Amino acid sequence: MGTTTHPRDPPPLGELAAVIQRSLQANFASATASVVECPDLRQPPFHLASPGLSGSPCIADVGGQANLFPLPNLDARFSLRSLARDMQMTEQEGGFLIGAGAAPFHDTGYNAELAVNLYTPPGPHVGAGDQDVDKVRNGTRIIQMNPDGSSCCEPIESLNCGLMVNLYGSTGDSGPVLKITARARTGDQNFTNCIRLGLADHYGDSRPVSLGGAFLLKKGKAKFHIMPDFPKSDQLPFQDREQLEKEWLTYHVFEAPIVCLTVMHSADPEGLGLRMEHTHGFETDGNRKGGHYHYDMPETAAEVEYEAYLNVASTVYRIDRP
Description:
Layout: E1 3-7, H1 13-25, E2 28-37, E3 58-63, E4 77-79, H2 80-86, E5 95-102, H3 105-108, E6 113-120, E7 137-138, E8 141-145, E9 151-155, E10 160-170, E11 176-185, H4 191-203, E12 210-219, E13 221-226, H5 241-248, E14 250-255, E15 258-265, E16 277-282, E17 290-296, E18 305-312, E19 315-319
Parallel strand pairs: 3-19
Antiparallel strand pairs: 1-19, 2-11, 3-10, 4-10, 5-6, 5-10, 6-7, 6-8, 8-9, 11-18, 12-15, 12-18, 13-14, 13-17, 15-16, 16-17
Helix pairs in contact: 1-4
């Protein structure tokens, strides 16, 4: 795999909070953004694999949507532990990965969505390399379509993924983060785009900002898509991306609470082909809700509520660009 490294010059968190709050207040009846000490995200309602988002924060964009079109690229197979090393996350420091990607079809035997939530503690590890699961906390979920058309969200033991994944990485330490709240959407933008487009308007291409973390859909309903298994050979190739989105993806409306893991960029001045925003959600009190977040539903706009904890990356890695 080819890996390129792109340092960022992120603004201070306090400055980012002011920009984000202005953008959200133009799109929600009530919104705040501030700098706080990160709460323990291992606890409910987030259930993440590490307490915080601090320590060598970085983001990786791996593979991409082009690995689906016009034919699925079944050679696009990735190890999350190997990707952590590509992101210069060392065994001595340990590492925490969260993000949105495609399931390891080569392990499961089918295609699905993946919400990555994986922590490896610091120190040397002995065992079977990437499959040495004894030393990791793996809260990763797979979100799939069942043969009867129902959806399923459940833990997965594999430390792999396929096709594409967008990852926020850190050592998982506690530290200062952005706390963002928003309630009662009044505008057209979804929660994540409101944040990143506000940053894009303020900083432009001259100072790209890359953020990652988690948010909770606390109230309301939102639309998600779930990739089904790969189409049969007689349904391929996809004629165009519109066909893929309209005829293949499955769409679902799920009610809060849902935990969402997100990576976003305000700009891509180097032309890296970054996916500008990628968010996957999962439920912790059941086994059905989750998938790729689109937006909260108009019928619950007046009651929708979000709470997010995000941090800014100092480095972006582009890995195995199609």
